[in-house]
Write a structure and sequence with these properties.
single chain; alpha/beta; oxidoreductase activity, acting on NAD(P)H as acceptor; 6 helices; two-stranded antiparallel sheet; NAD; globular
Amino acid sequence: MKLLHIDSSVLGPHSVSRQVSAAIVDRLRQATPSLEVVYRDLTETPLAHLSGSHLAAAQGAPAPAELGPDLTASETVLNEFLDADIVVIGAPMYNFTIPSQLKAWIDRVLVKGKTFKYDASGPEGLVGDKRVIVAISRGGHYGAETPYAAGEHLETYLRWVFGFMGITSLEFISADGVNLGPEHREKALAGALQAATGLQAA
């Protein structure tokens, strides 16, 4: 069984989402020692954002020579995703949505003919056999009952993206209010870490 671990926070060891995603992976490794883990840090090895040249190449147009390494990277990250049985993602909220580094990765795995397709009845996800677990950290509180619910474009976006690809085994562990003060941060982190230890085995 293969697990793909993705981190996208720019805060390194100070990141809450990184701590929680690592705890999730540790829990699954303990439960399944034979688990094969591939790790990708999107801030250490960032992917370029999509350009007109990327889209043209995807349609079969000749790619500029300088785009070659990036197209190779695209193929690599797509294959990592396709090969994984479980995907664990550390996703902090930056300005109400996902980091741009994570968006660049999504643009490489949300690929027509690979992870979804269209037919006469509309879109169909092609990778519904995966388990996806997302470790979220948010500076404030954005639950449905809060005044800020309309500003939440992280969890809602990721639910849509992975659902579009057919994934129904989707779990979120959230640390909310981490910017409201040290006590709030510690409480939110402790709660998320505790939730990670209670995850079902791989």
